[in-house]
Structure prediction request, 438 residues.
Amino acid sequence: MIAMTIKHHLPDELLMAYSAGELSEAVNLILATHISLCDDCRAALAGYDAVGGAVLDRCDSVPMSASSLNSVLELIHAQDSTAQEKEFRVPASDRTLPEPLAAYVGGDLDSVHWRPVGMGVKQAILPTSSDATARLLYIPAGTAIPDHSHSGLELTLVLQGAFQDDDGYFGRGDIEVASENLHHTPVADISEDCICLAVTDAPLKFKGWMPRMAQPFLGI
Amino acid sequence: MMSTAVLSSDCDPAPVANRREIRDLSHEAGDGKKTLTNGTPNSIGPWVEELVAIRDLRDETAFVRVFEHFGPRVKAFLMKAGMDSALAEECAQEALVTVWNKSHLYDASRASPSTWIFTIARNKKIDVLRKQKRPEPEDLVWGPQAEPEQEDIIGLQQESEHLGRALRDLPSKQRDLIEKAYFGELSHSEIAEQTGLPLGTIKSRIRLALERLRHQMK
Prediction:
């Protein structure tokens, strides 16, 4: 069932940028995954899509070429037999990985190719365009992630378990949007191993003695 | 000439899923006069009847009307997003083919026709200009036994028109900023949190429609 306890949502400017189609693939992926779990943000996104519809309505029209309609009608005649497949699927809400994420992993959690990175932490980098990085993180219960800050955007979405940091408690479906230059040390909840999707659009910067351990951990 | 790649999932519309027929649409809409003309006072909302006729009746006449209205606007939108005229023409044709082929995904309680066609054009833009697919949220579909409430459909269509008027009435500087964002001229960090648009009502209305849909899915 959809998580009704989501407390940490997407900020409006990210929803609008997602609606406008201005985000990189990895950021689109984490937003699509959160929205799959969060009807508040799904409704908010639909609101921004409606703004896009209003912008489209205001566009001047540029005439289509003379042969345009005929080409399109030929295409819909050629393809109509295969179109309109009316399959009915019950959403797989009992899975840990919502559909958009499962498409990148190639299945649910048991299909993830984890790579151990020390301290019991594992990660899997997902194949997206290189302007931002999406990784799944597996953090054993009670483990702390090294203190770090970022020059760009860092988004963290909880899929299983929970973590706690200065911004609060984050459970399944909650998304943290780390602001620029925020230092934080997320700690996985003690009760269960934590699985997160994390997206960064710029390299992370680490503080203190931890970088030595953190560099292989984050693969940058 | 277009390739069959136009129908790849990369240019699918946003998943607003409803395949149930809207029954007695025109009777619910106003004074009971049946009309398929867009924008008339007793219409449920501009172009809704046409999309429903395409979806449920595979009505080609309705499709031609939708093509003639939206084709030139989608082409203009794509040119503003950075395409040259020839590419925008090809992509607008592909977008309209998607309207026909994916009409079973159109849910009038969650998107106006303009909104739905905008999402198709937007995905086409990402597909072609960024050469990326766009991860979409999990599909929510109406089951075989249920369909959206008439009042949700009418309410959403009215809110969409209200939003269109609010955009028109914004001070031009503010409106330009919003249009720039949707044409791709602003990065996400340049997009302002406040649009000046009254989005609260449309969000709550869609939220309510989603609750009904979730209830049906149980």
